[in-house]
């Protein structure tokens, strides 16, 4: 008997929280558009260049909302992102002192080892800045408009996707020139940024329509569904974790359904169909949240390996858990009554190698290690069906730690996988089709069944990144307080239909997972401060939209972070699936 092929599902998750101030419409942080010109552009390019490669992408609707917003801003020439607006300002000699300071504060924010040091002219600008600010002095008034112009250009060149650098003669000429960029060159770079962002969604949609990629979704504003539904699910994986003072999030089930319905509507509008699958925010699942997704028509979902191991123990408490090799490489069915959903669970080791380890290796070494690991799984898999290996990770934040934004690693990885005789690249929906119609397929996939789900996420199989500590719990209590105020105002019918719509959207933003992710002393102080302020600003704006006084305690920081943590060495944007 020939060994069945190994089916590999590469699944890239794309997400940024809403960085807009809902009252002014201004962007508080620039990360959405910077990742757009770097990572979202590069990731789709690799698939365009290798039509045989097949992967899945998960796009969170609130990210797509922002990408469309940026595209509209360029169309109307009404830019609401301060850094981007400065890039497109015709004469930097007349900008305000506050705008000058913003350029200096913002345009060195990156992982310097891979995004600043490789460019001597950019590094020279940084050394000038360091010299003028060393020993606590502030001599930045010596920096001219030309310095600010060059800094803006280099910041955007450093954040430019490698696919753009290699294919745009204009970008290559700017990088060769290195300094003394003209206003016309800077404005042309601004125009290129607009074109890259505006073309992104159509490029991904085209590949989805051809069947080369599958695009899945996430509850609209990226909330942790199990925690909206029931705080006590925290105890499935963290039995002794303290919980927020509030017994539960008020009306959490209805809010969870609202996020799911919003995701479906978003997907239909942008891609013409409802999403077949979902990456629930942070891979966070409970049995209740999975069944809720199934009830909304979602056919498959994905989570972390730790959740699977814990769920197998919970489903069969008297049965010892076998080697991960014996249970990991297959999908599992979760059902109740007529509601049924198929779950895929990531191989934490392989996924974390891409996220954290391969950036330190030469691309050929990294690809060789990845393929050899798959070959080991293939050669030791003792069943007649095809093993299904799910590699799921952040599709945007890993690459700045790689040389050339991971260009050579991804190029060689896709090439190696499509040409391997015993490996087949597949999407999750293709695996579902194999399960549903086995007689019509050359492949055979055995689907396991889970009677119970141990609630948790892709990070350590628990919710420890979002709840269970003093800072995080207090963040939840502030949200519960705001939700009670929201419910009271809505019952009174004092708001117009449009006012209610704006308030509901703002509540949805406040329910996102990112605010709780960043609260804690294991993150860099600068990053914690940015997200702490933005979360409290969002809560304040919710009270404003509800026409209520803002609680005084929202002016006080929730969390300070760790001043000893290097913000550019590990920015906190990624977590491993398993604790080291």
Look at the helices and sheets and give the structural class.
Answer: alpha/beta
Total strand count, please? 10
Please mark out the parts with pLDDT under 50 across 5 or more consecutive residues, or reply none. Answer: none
Number of helices: 23
Look at the structure and give the mean pLDDT. Answer: 94
Main β sheet profile: 5 strands, parallel
What does this structure look like?
With 580 residues, this protein is of the alpha/beta class. The protein has a domain at 63-197. Helices cover 49% and strands 8% of the residues. The chain has 23 helices and 10 strands. It has helices at residues 31-49, 61-76, 82-87, 97-106, 112-115, 120-133, 145-158, 162-167, 169-177, 183-210, 225-229, 252-271, 287-295, 305-315, 324-327, 348-357, 363-380, 407-418, 428-436, 470-492, 497-510, 514-518, 525-545, and strands spanning 6-14, 55-59, 213-216, 277-278, 300-303, 332-336, 339-345, 388-394, 423-425, 448-449. The strands form 2 sheets. Strands 1, 2, 3, 8 and 9 form a 5-stranded parallel β-sheet that branches. A 5-stranded mixed β-sheet has the order 4-5-7-6-10, with helices on both faces. Strand 4 (277-278), helix 13 and strand 5 form a beta-alpha-beta unit. The longest helix is centred in the middle third of the chain and has 28 residues, at 183-210.
In short, what is this structure?
By secondary structure, this protein is of the alpha/beta class. It is built from 23 helices and 10 strands. The longest helix is centred in the middle third of the chain and has 28 residues.
């Amino acid at each position: 008997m020939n060994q069945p092929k190994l089916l590999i599902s590469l699944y890239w998750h794309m997400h940024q929280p809403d960085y807009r101030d809902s009252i002014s419409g201004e962007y508080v942080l620039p990360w959405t558009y910077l990742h757009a010109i770097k990572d979202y552009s590069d990731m789709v390019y690799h698939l365009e260049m290798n039509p045989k490669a097949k992967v899945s992408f998960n796009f969170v609707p609130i990210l797509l909302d922002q990408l469309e917003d940026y595209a509209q801003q360029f169309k109307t020439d009404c830019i609401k992102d301060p850094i981007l607006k400065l890039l497109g300002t015709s004469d930097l000699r007349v900008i305000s002192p506050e705008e000058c300071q913003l350029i200096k504060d913002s345009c060195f924010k990156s992982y310097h080892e891979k995004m600043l040091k490789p460019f001597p002219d950019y590094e020279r600008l940084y050394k000038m800045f360091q010299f003028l600010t060393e020993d606590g002095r502030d001599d930045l008034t010596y920096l001219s408009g030309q310095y600010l112009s060059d800094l803006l250009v280099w910041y955007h060149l450093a954040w430019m996707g490698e696919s753009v650098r290699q294919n745009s003669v204009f970008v290559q000429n700017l990088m060769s020139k290195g300094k003394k960029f003209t206003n016309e060159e800077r404005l042309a770079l601004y125009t290129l940024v607009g074109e890259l962002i505006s073309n992104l969604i159509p490029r991904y949609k085209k590949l989805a329509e051809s069947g080369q990629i599958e695009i899945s979704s996430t509850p609209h504003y990226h909330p942790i569904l199990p925690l909206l539904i029931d705080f006590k699910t925290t105890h499935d994986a963290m039995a002794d974790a303290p919980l927020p003072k509030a017994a539960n999030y008020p009306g959490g089930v209805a809010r969870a359904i609202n996020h799911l319905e919003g995701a479906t509507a978003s997907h239909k509008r942008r891609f013409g169909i409802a999403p077949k699958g979902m990456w629930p925010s942070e891979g966070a699942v409970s049995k209740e949240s999975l069944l809720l997704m199934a009830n909304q028509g979602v056919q498959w979902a994905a989570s972390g390996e730790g959740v699977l191991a814990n769920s197998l123990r919970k489903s069969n408490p008297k049965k010892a858990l076998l080697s991960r090799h014996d249970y990991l490489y297959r999908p599992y069915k979760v059902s109740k009554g007529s509601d049924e959903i198929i779950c895929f669970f990531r191989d934490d080791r392989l996924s974390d190698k891409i996220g954290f380890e391969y950036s330190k290796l030469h691309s050929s070494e990294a690809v060789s290690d990845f393929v050899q690991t798959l070959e080991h799984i293939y050669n030791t898999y003792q069943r007649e069906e095809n093993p299904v290996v799910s590699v799921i990770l952040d599709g945007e934040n890993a690459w700045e730690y790689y040389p050339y934004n991971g260009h050579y690693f991804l190029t060689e990885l896709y090439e190696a996988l499509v040409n391997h005789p015993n490996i087949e690249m597949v999407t999750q929906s293709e695996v579902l089709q194999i399960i549903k119609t086995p007689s019509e397929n050359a492949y055979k996939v055995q689907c396991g069944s889970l009677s119970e789900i141990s609630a948790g996420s892709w990070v350590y199989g628990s919710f420890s990144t979002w709840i269970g500590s003093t800072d995080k719990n207090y963040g939840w209590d502030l949200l519960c307080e705001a939700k009670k105020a929201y419910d009271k105002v809505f019952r009174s019918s004092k708001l117009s239909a449009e006012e209610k719509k704006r308030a509901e959207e703002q509540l949805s933003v406040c329910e996102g997972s990112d605010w709780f992710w960043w609260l804690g002393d294991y993150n860099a102080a600068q990053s914690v401060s940015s997200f702490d302020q933005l979360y409290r600003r969002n809560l304040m704006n919710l009270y404003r939209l509800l026409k209520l006084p803002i609680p005084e305690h929202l002016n006080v920081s929730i969390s300070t972070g760790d001043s000893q943590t290097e913000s550019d060495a590990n920015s906190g944007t990624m977590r491993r699936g398993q604790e080291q």
